[in-house]
Amino acid sequence: MEFLIEHTWDGLPVSHEPVSIGLRPDNAGLLMEIRAPFFNDPPAPPGEPGKPFGGLWDYEVVEAFFLSDRSEQYLEVELCPHGQYLLLLLSGRRKALKEQLPLEFEVTRMETRWEGKALLPWSYFPPCTDKFNAFAIHGSGEERKYEALYPVPPHQVQEGQEPDFHRLEFFKDLNLKELTGEDWKQPESDIWKSLTK
User: Fold this and answer.
1) What count of other Cβ atoms lies within 10 Å of the Cβ of residue 95?
2) Residue of 78, 80, 79, 75 whose CA lies nearest to 96
3) CA pair distance 168, 192, nearest whole angstrom
4) Is the pTM value of this prediction over 0.70?
5) Average pLDDT, the chain
6) Which element (helix H / strand E) includes 113?
7) Which of 19, 96, 140, 180 has the fewest CB atoms within 10 Å around its CB?
């Protein structure tokens, strides 16, 4: 399954080759593969590559959100072309229950492009995951660009509105069985169980 981020957060077309996000099943979880332009703006975060980095959303990043619409529990995945990442488990809009989870994440960076592969363990997905959205951010200051797979519809953008990637009402359906096969059942997550007791 492949998704292209072709619009800004408020529905305008992007002015460069779109970021591509591929999702493929693996026994241990979902393999997320990114192919994206490399802007190198802003410069690399000061954190160690291959490790979680708080506040990664202030840098060049590709993000994916996996939501259970019924419970408003979601997994937020942030991946940076410089090798840092950040994973958060949230329950309700912006209410983080757990962050800085470990991740297998590899990056290949070229002069103008980058590719990333991350194996997202099934235990990180909230029970009954059924909605999805993805985002890309790059640039500094006035040139900061916020892009969305499923943007806010232009007629719903208010004057002076800022981008907000936690607008769960704009996420769209994601049927994991299309990837894994009709007989697949989402594995129970001990992590989510322990967080939502």
Assistant:
1) 12
2) 75
3) 19
4) yes
5) 93
6) strand 113-121
7) 96
